[in-house]
Amino acid sequence: MKNENVIEVENLTKAFGAFKAVNAISFEVKKGEIFGFLGANGAGKTTAIKMLIGISHPTSGKAKVVDFDVYTQPEAIKRNIGYMSQRFALYDDLTVQENINFFGGIYGLSRKAIRQKSKDSLVELGMHEISSKLVGSLPLGWKQKLSFSVALLHEPKIVFLDEPTGGVDPITRRQFWEMIYKAADQGTTIFVTTHYMDEAEYCDRVSIMVEGKIEALDTPKNLKQQFKVASMNEVFLKLARNIE
Amino acid sequence: MRTIGYIVQKEFKQIFRNKGMLPIIFILPILQLVILSNAATYEVKNIKFAYIDADRTSTSRSLIEKFNASSYFDVLMDFPSNKIANFAMLAGEVDVVLEIPIHFERNLIKEKSATLGISINAIDGAAAGLESVYINQIIQGYNRDIRVSLMDTSHRSIKPINISSSPSFWYNTSLDYKTFMVPGILVLLVTMITLFLSGMNIVREKEIGTLEQINVTPIKKSQFIMGKLFPFWIIGMGLLTIGLILAKLIFNTPMLGNIPLLYLYTSIYILVILGMGLLISNFTDTQQQAMFIAWFFIVIFILMSGLFTPIESMPQWAQIFTEINPIKYFVEVMRMVLLKGAGLQVILPQLLKTLAYALVMNALAVWSYKKVN
Asked: Boundaries of each ABC transmembrane type-2 domain copy (chain B) (predicted)?
């Protein structure tokens, strides 16, 4: 049987001196899954993501992303994933269309493919009329949706979203999650971190990181049962308090 | 290749869209060329000259008249006493004070010799040296005149022995300092703008967070760097062109040599500077840090380039240091090609050293650029 896991992590650790930002975490993510990666600020989520997307060397442990090893094949990983960082990372001084062209281009898409793709996503985003506007002039919610589309341009197998909806209004968050579902339906695996516990409920499975370790990992439903509470919010608070 | 093309395209769009940056790139260098070339002069002119004439005879007056006639001296005033003259020197109102003692004329006629007192403000030693030379020339000229007139009165006609030499000045025949300075200033502006722009560029992407996004793409280090640097290479060559045109139009700088040769050299030279900028970018986290480091290097390189002060008069250790100063080579080549009409063979040593420098710098820059931390 073919291995359906697209991410396999075993005892992955990142230490900065004596401090272990990520302390021997292990988990798997299945193809097409929406995997919620939760944790308080400073729990080590971003550090963990940076190791998985090949821009940070792990201190120890194993990790495979899309069948490629994070130590030896980071460039192969990069071809197969999309990434949207905490900080908005498109170019403010380029227009919507220019940003799409640039990122499509450096991922090696043909001109024709870029044209087709950008047309599709601009229509989907409802941004085809403002495609020649500078990205810097757009409201944050629009920027985030555009970032997500750009991260999907080269049809990656996995998309890593690091707090994609931070500071975004509820309506836009809602639309954002519709986009996430749509991508997942098409077979893209979604790896998402968030602070919003209602968003955690939308995930297929959720891991909760506390001080560098994964303290819980299951479906939202099972987690709520396990901790005998009604919402993910309470699960999160219980876990965080236990540690303190 | 296509990837590089996309980066180049993006960089150019960003550069030309940045309304704050464009004038810095194109207007400032022009101002620099025009202002510095006119102001940075070695010539000592308009020397503030004063005198104390205690003799008050026709001889002393004719000596002062000599200074008055010279274009180097501005004869400002006649001080009644030493004390007042010293005070004026202290206040910076005068640079040179000539003191003609009492009985100057009498001594000259009777004893055939007389002394003059000269005080020079020597805070700027080089200028003071020149002033002293000018003063001596005038006094010697005066000497000759009175010797002749004294001889005439005694009716003797022995021809004084005269050794004279007339130097022929090469390359800059009219001894115009602008001819000397303009090519040097041109070096300065090409270097400064390209270093600052390239040094600032990648670190800026670090600051705004887009560099991380780039590092997550499968783009190769060398592709990214080439794409980043190429636009600045073009800008550097553009600046050279603008500078040469201005040098011709405004300063009528001689251009004896082969201009394509100058372009060939500059195209390699800019690579050195861009590599340096990139290296700075790689080791800094903010544009501010990058700016300070770039300044540090540029100031040292400029002062030790032979642009303003001759390298031959630097101490031995400093001369050795100038061997690794890229600006020195460019200044040399620029002056050699433009003013002396030097050909490829003459500038070959500089060309090869610069080429080696460019290779080392860019290898270091690519090596130190890390996609993974």
From this structure: 147-372
